[in-house]
Amino acid sequence: MPDRAQRRDVARNRERLLATAEVYFGKRSLDAPLQGLAKAAGLGEATLFRHFPSHEALVRALYDRLVERIDHVVTRATATEDPWLAVEVFLRGCIEIVVDSPAVPEIMRRQAVNDPSYTPGDAWVEPIRALVERAIAAGVLRPDVRGSDLVTSAQMFWGIARVPEPGRELRAHRHLQLLLDGLRANPAHGPLPSRPLGAGEVHRLLHGVGDSTDDD
User: Fold this and answer.
1) Is the pLDDT of residue 216 over 70?
2) 142 CB contacts (<8 Å, ≥6 apart)?
3) What integer is the mean pLDDT of 64-93?
4) Which is nearest to 124 in space by CA: 71, 197, 80?
5) By C-alpha distance, which of 164, 190, 37, 179 is closest to 102?
6) What are the φ/ψ torsions at residue 203 (nearest 5 degrees)?
């Protein structure tokens, strides 16, 4: 049985590998050599493969790390008392994740290929729906917005995920403000075209699986 110091060391190495992997894959691609990842983390290949015996295991761990970050964003947003500020907290939090980790889109798509049945994002559907309904009831969010619109709005920022800094962050904040202004309730707004996506359609869109426009 490893002692407490050894367990801490194991946990630190795992976290170092995952944090390094986000940067390493963000600068390259998800299929970049794992030997390079171990070197970038300052650890041996044996340590890497003890923690993540396969590429699929590493992708799953990166995906779970992403899920945990989004969980925190959803929790902060739903706990925000001001209805409009809650919308901002959610969108800003999601977009900051993409700006900080350009590998996010590729991680999501690869995890969906590796295990299509794994859908932890289902847990966010109701909290985001409630957040949207609260903002609409307060008269601060345009009434034809749905929770899926917020989620897919954040997904639009994937296009600038790999823009080099400082341009990536500057563009993200500029376009976020344009997005927020468009979401605010305003009598001058015309109705949104087409229907909002269902939860299953959003999942397929974000993960690049199948036809995202099928009826849910």
Assistant:
1) no
2) 136, 183, 184, 185, 186, 189, 192
3) 97
4) 71
5) 164
6) -60, -45
